[in-house]
Amino acid sequence: MKRILASTALVAVSAGMASAGGIERTAQSVGVLFEEGNHAEISFGFASPEVSGTSLAIPGAVPALEIGNVANDFTLPSAAIKVDLNDKISAALIYDRPFGADVAYDPANPILGGTVAEANTNVLTALLKYQITPRFSAYGGIRRSQAEGEITLQGAAYGPTSGYNVKLDSATGTGYVLGAAYEVPDIALRVALTYSSDISHDMGTTETGPLIDPDGPGPAPALPLLAGTSETEVKTPESWTLDFQTGISADTLLFGSIRHVKHSQFRVDPEQFVAVTGGGLIDQDDTTTYRLGVGRRFTDKMVGSLAIAYEAPGDELVSPLAPSTGYTQLSVGMAYDVADNVTLSGGISYTWLGDAKPETGTPDTARAEFEDNNNFGIGFKIAYKF
Prior knowledge:
By secondary structure, the protein is mostly beta strands. The protein has a single domain, classed as Outer membrane protein transport protein (OMPP1/FadL/TodX) (Porin), CATH 2.40.160.60. The chain has 2 helices and 23 strands. It has helices at about 1-15, 270-275, and strands at about 40-50, 55, 65, 75-85, 90-95, 100-105, 115-130, 135-155, 165-185, 190-195, 200-210, 230-235, 240-250, 250-260, 285-295, 300-310, 315-320, 325-340, 340-355, 355-360, 365, 370, 375-385. Strands 1-4-5-7-8-9-10-13-14-15-16-18-19-23 form a 14-stranded antiparallel beta barrel. The longest helix is centred in the first third of the chain and has 13 residues, at about 1-15. The radius of gyration is 23 Å and the shape is elongated. The relative contact order is 0.20.
């Protein structure tokens, strides 16, 4: 029962987990380390966010207009394998895509239309766990990340920088993971604390943009000040995660987590753009996410789970490239043992996204209002014991 409940809980909290703050799409779980015996799994998630709003009028120039959905659907494949090397040491290898962005504003909107942000990551994590005593264990390893992206700023909200584009070439970086856990197997109790470091990517950068007139209508001519090639350091953020689970009856498991992510470490500061505007492209708040759920066995082969998550909203003024703040999420999962060593599981989630106001300029000026948005996610997993 413990194996099936743990599998179900994992799917329920990860299905469509595309709503976390910043650019995070999954929580980079190390839960596979705690599976019994040798274990392999493949997962697939699909997220369909709806993020729309209304642009604010520019008096005497542009009226308030509706902004259609700016967030594109995306997929979340992942895979993991865990092997017991002996009775004390286990090893795991995990592949996932924990960070990303896919935002595009309809070019027909004159305020922010044509603004686009795309970012992709591929991450491979190698871990070792050492069972110090029957109840205490420690684990750690390295995380190798590949990232790339492209951003276009377009619309009246960007003033003279409208039309700016930056391409961030694919680059890799390395970070690390450290953690410790306390377990009481007889009651399915486990408390685990995991730290994941930030990962720095030195990305080849190509900037293009409109001509900038440094003295306005004065004698100096407009210059291509936004154009150039350089290298930009982009970090994916560090995080702390406290996971727990415990049996509360013979057939019921309580589980949850607290996760803090330093999204303020994720910045995109291309050389030419910073020189012209005095600031970077991204500025995000750190987030703390709380999750609580319950798993229940229905038959010897089938269990289900229900989980709720909450992330408090931050500053309502946000980047147009991430136009929401905070969320509440409800997830439902089920798992079924199709054989002694094969488990199929799946989950769905619905997320109520927090309202926000995309802003530009210095000082920050709200350019739109985004309200009553949501995200639907679905995930499937097949796990095999060998």
